[in-house]
Fold this sequence. Notes:
about 475 residues, Rossmann fold, 20 helices, EC 4.2.3.1, Ser/Thr_deHydtase_PyrdxlP-BS, lyase, amino-acid biosynthesis, threonine biosynthesis
Amino acid sequence: MQYVSTRGHVKPKGFIDTVLMGLADDGGLMIPEQTPVVSSEQLQAWASLSYEQLFLEIFSLYINDEIPKDELRAMVARSYSSFRNKEVTPLKKVHDSLYILELFHGPTFAFKDVALQFMGEFYSYVSKKQGEIIHILGATSGDTGAAAIQGVRGKEGIKICILHPHQRVSKIQELQMTTVQDDNVLNLAVKGNFDDCQKIIKDLFFDLKFKGKHHLRAINSINFVRILAQTVYYFYAYLQVNQGNDKPQLINFSVPSGNFGNVFSGYLAKKMGLPVNKLIIATNENNILERFVRTGEYKPGDFRSTHSPSMDIQVASNFERYLYYLLNEDAEKVSAYMEQLKSEGKIVITGEDLLKVQSEFVALGATNQQCLDLIAKYKSEHDYLLDPHTACGIAAYEHAHMDGEVTVALATAHPAKFDEAIILCEIEQEFPEEIAKLLDQPQFQTVVELDEAEIVRQLIDFYQ
């Protein structure tokens, strides 16, 4: 298996080099040269596997034997040893047509843990094997930063700097990042929004001299290993729903999505042969992805702060990966579209291409009030407390559901991380001990202006 860039100007790379590259050197995103396809017989054989065993089977299709199986197995075991549920991503049945896949049982109570605890182990493995220091640099709308820091804090040979939008993440998200005082962690609170932070990260990774000199490595979902790790729970959920069924049924997935990485993982799983019926994209009032599916126009709009801050994103990084497949893997067309987005501020998909988009996705941008109403409704009617991002997913499920269908809605975070929204629903929740104890701890962060030069100065000081 080799990996290429969506823009076509990077020589094919192996798995480890692809992960280390992060953002492709030509500004594109790395994707597998071919997508491995899982047969129905192979899928059936996976039905009895544990989550960790399934992870190993899926990754073995992509890693070219670059990591010995026993070493990969040890990394996976360490990655999920800190999860509070032995199933890693347990499935809860709400009623006959709806299941909730709980992705928040990792150390930071968010779905990002599923991929980032493994990435921390992977970077530590590479650092030791290659004898090089690794400087991880990422932007977060809240959850990625906490999960990434937890995955690498205290690890020898690794330093991590995370940019987050100052006062635009939940208080618990902020505390999970900024109460970590390990010497290899730097938190920069940027006076801007997530898209501002993400643009700075991409600019620095595209500066190949700076990237090479400082051994920069990506932790955001521009890194393909994030995407691949997330495909595992789509397979796992499908196999759990259909356990014991003589005639396996197609499953819908409703996916809260801001940066398009989570739902793209579902798209990749479908390309691999997973029998997915609908992929439902759930966004909030920052609804660029809904508008794209509905009209074909991909155009960042006015930024809005919402009760689901992890999805307060207008520019979805992983959209380019989907565009590559939509355009039949034509890297020249992808490059032209991305240049048009940069110069004109939008791209428009029409005709057969738009019909293809609409055959592959359904989308809904839920309002703040819809999310609050659904949090209250599901607590009252099903005794299940949704976080506001998962509530967006439930809104999209209710919008797209048809009789006879079964949907798995992805619960991307524990509600304790977003108590500001839960309080508005007049619901009092009990915080898990790990979250409650954060409230009394000192914080370590540096507040900076939206100034790339100042951020670079902070990084250079940190790396020395």
